[in-house]
Amino acid sequence: MTPDSNRVVEFEELRPLLFSIAYRLLGSVSEAEDAVQETWLRYESSPTQPESVRAYLSATVSRIAIDVLRSARVRREAYVGPWFPEPLLADPYEDPQRSAELADSLSMAALLLLERLSPLERAVFVLREVFGFGFPEVASTVGRSEAACRQLAVRARRHMDAGRPRFEADRAQREALAVRFLDAFRDGDLAALTELLAADVQLVGDAGGKAPNWGEVFAGSANVARVLAALMPLFARIGARVDPHEVNGQPGAVFRDRDARVLSTWAFDVLEGRIQTIRTITNPDKLAHLAPVADAWAALREAGQG
């Protein structure tokens, strides 16, 4: 095997890890994939072989993501309406020893908390707390001393702990509740929907000004249930289907039109047997990596609401 082919094999073995790091830093599937590709180009053109390929590639993708994040934050300040991360249906990286950290850090709620950190705090937290890198590696990656990185980690951990979302511990219970909820939604059963929603539930939508939005935020079980019950007939008129699917490690669904094009994703936060938050994404730019995307405006006109 040639040196170049060795590099290809090594890189492909680490690709899932690199993507998972970049996605948690950027909250964007497309930007994470771009960061991974740029990492490969730098590795491929490097004249020397690093002592630790894993450390070198992880540091490289993190630095690239930090640079992208700094410019992305400016764009997100001008974003129309609530901003959510691009939905991720499956994390390609698995580590049994860190499964809890990986799962917790993938949820929409956790990624939105990460958005409040500075780029350096975010990088230190993700590398140290989520992926378990040592402080020497973290310091080398972000270009700060180990002492400074420890301080960054403490600040980031304090902030994340203060706002850390709580979820139903039992995955099977979460999934079962989501199935019941989606069945009630399909049936337009207002009473069943209300029963499955927390009293202070929130329904929040990210359309980015590029798709129909039935309001950015609805709150309260009665209000949210009425909105949901009113939506189902619209979906039925366009032959839409609801596919239950894990979204960012939490129960959710992918909505498709009759031609299997994606209309939206929904992600649920579940606690104490009730749905606490529903986050919907209809911005087509954030759905394009999943499958062909439906024209939501055309679907709305077909449903007689445009």
List the defining traits of the structure above.
globular; 6 strands; RNA polymerase sigma-70 factor; alpha+beta; 12 helices; Butyryl-CoA Dehydrogenase, subunit A, domain 3; transcription; 306 residues; six-stranded mixed beta sheet; Nuclear Transport Factor 2, Chain: A
Low-pLDDT ranges: none
Q: What is the CATH class designation of the largest domain?
A: Mainly Alpha
Strand order of the largest sheet: 2-1-6-5-4-3
In total, the number of domains comes to 2
Helix % is 40-55%
Q: From the helix content, strand content and strand pairing, which structural class follows? A: alpha+beta
In CATH, the architecture of the largest domain is Up-down Bundle
Summarize the model shown.
The chain is α+β, with helices and mostly antiparallel strands.
What do you see in this structure?
By secondary structure, the protein is an alpha+beta fold. The chain has two domains: 3-163, Butyryl-CoA Dehydrogenase, subunit A, domain 3; 171-302, Nuclear Transport Factor 2, Chain: A (Roll), CATH 3.10.450. It contains twelve helices and six strands. The chain has a six-stranded mixed beta sheet. The model has no long low-confidence stretch (mean pLDDT 92).
SSE layout:
Elements: H1 3-26, H2 29-45, H3 53-77, H4 99-106, H5 108-114, H6 119-130, H7 135-142, H8 146-163, H9 171-187, H10 190-196, E1 197-206, E2 217-219, H11 221-237, E3 241-244, E4 252-256, E5 262-271, E6 274-281, H12 296-302
Parallel strand pairs: 1-6
Antiparallel strand pairs: 1-2, 3-4, 4-5, 5-6
Helix pairs in contact: 1-2, 1-3, 2-3, 3-7, 6-7, 6-8, 7-8, 9-10, 10-11
Organism: Amycolatopsis acidicola
Domain RNA polymerase sigma-70 region: 11-73
GO molecular function: DNA binding; sigma factor activity
